[in-house]
C-alpha cells in the first residue's frame, strides 16, 4: 500500500508554482505529500518544463521525499489524487489583456475578476472546470478540489451548482493578505491577528478585526485612511480612503473595494497606466518573462523573491495552510469560499460565499456572520446576482443571459455600453467560447 498524499496541480506551468512547492516543503513533516503532479496544456508545455524543473530542484535541495511529475495528460494525473488544486488561466495572459483593455477602450473598468473582464473570464473558465469535475468523478471521486482559478467565487459556485463534486473549496490570497497587512500595520505577529471575514471573493469585508481576541477594528480603520498605510495588493493601485466615509462604513474593506467605492479614480488611473505602459496583463507578462528567465537558471533551487511582485503573494501560505488543516483535522479558523448554508443572511443558501470557517477533515464549516450591515449588503447582493447570472451564461451559452450579466454589473454604465463591450469581447475570445459559437456566425 502506498502512503502519503498525491497532489495534482492543474495549471502547473504557472509562474506561481514555486509558491506552492515552497508551502508543501515547509509543511512536509505534518503533511506527507508523496507526489505532486503538475499538469498543463500543450500551449503551456515550455513553461511547465521550466517551472517543473525548478520544482524538482527545490525539493532536492532540501531533501524532502516529494516526487514531482510533469504531464500534459490530465487524466493520467488525476488518477487516485487526494487533492486537486487549480490555478489555470484559459487563453493565458493574452486573454487577460483583452479582458482588461476592451472595456477600458469604452471607458469602463475591465476588472478581470468581478467586472466585465471577470464575466468573460467566467465564460471561458467554467466549462473547463466542469470538465475537470467530470474527470474527477471518474478518476478520484474522494479528492478535494481546491480552486484558486479566477474568478474564484464564481468558479466555486459553478462547481457547487452544476457538477457532482461537492468537496470543493475556493481559495484566495486577499483575506490572508489583509491579515498580514494588519499584522504589519500594528507590528504584531500574524498569528495574533484574526478577522471575521464575510462577503464574496474580491468583495469580502472584515466585520471585525482582533489582536489576541481584542477588537482593534477602530484603530485599523483609522490607520488605513492614510494612503501610505492602506492595505493593498501588488495588482491594485490603492489610494487610501476618505476618513469620514470609512468610519461611517465601520467595516474593513478589501483592496478590491477600490473598484467600487472609487470607480472614477480607479478608471482614471487605469486609463493613464494603459496609455503609458499597457494593462496589468502586460505588466505581468514582463514580470513573467523575467521570472521564467530566472527559473531557467539550473543553480536556482528556491522561490525567487521577485515572485512577490505578483498579486498572488501568500498564495502558498493560504493553499498549504488549508490543505494541512483539512488533512490534520486541525479545526482552526480560515477564510475560504464555500457553500453559504445560511452563514451570511441575505445571500442564497446554496451560493458560494467567502467567509471565516472552521477547517475540518470534512471540509470548511462556515461561522455564522448573520446579516451584513445595511451599507454593504446591497453591493454584495448585487455582485452575487451578477455572479449567478454570469455562471448561468457560462453553462448555457445563452447570449441574452450574458448580456444581462454584463448590464447588471455595477461597473457597467448602461445596457448600450454593455452590449458594445460584450459583442467585442465575445468575438475577441471566440476561440475559447465554444458554447457561444451559434451567436457569432
Ligand atoms: C490578487 C488576487 C488574485 C489575482 C492576483 C493578480 O492576488 O487575489 O486573485 O489573481 O491578485 O495578480 P497579478 O500579479 O496577476 O496581477
Description:
Helices cover 47% and strands 17% of the residues. It has helices spanning 17-26, 45-62, 74-78, 92-105, 116-139, 152-162, 174-186, 217-223, 243-249, 258-261, 263-277, 280-296, 315-328, 374-396, 399-408, 415-428; strands at 5-10, 33-39, 67-71, 83-86, 144-147, 168-170, 193-200, 203-211, 214-215, 252-253, 333-339, 344-345, 352-360, 363-366, 370-371. It has a domain at 5-170: Rossmann fold (3-Layer(aba) Sandwich), CATH 3.40.50. It is built from 16 helices and 15 strands. With 441 residues, the protein is of the alpha/beta class. It is globular. Strands 7, 8, 9, 10, 11, 13 and 14 form a 7-stranded antiparallel sheet that branches. It has a 6-stranded parallel sheet with strand order 3-2-1-4-5-6, with helices on both faces. Strands 12-15 form a two-stranded parallel sheet. Helix 14 packs antiparallel against helix 15. It binds 6-O-phosphono-alpha-D-glucopyranose. 6-O-phosphono-alpha-D-glucopyranose (G6P) is lined by residues 150, 172-174, 233-235, 280, 284, 310-312.
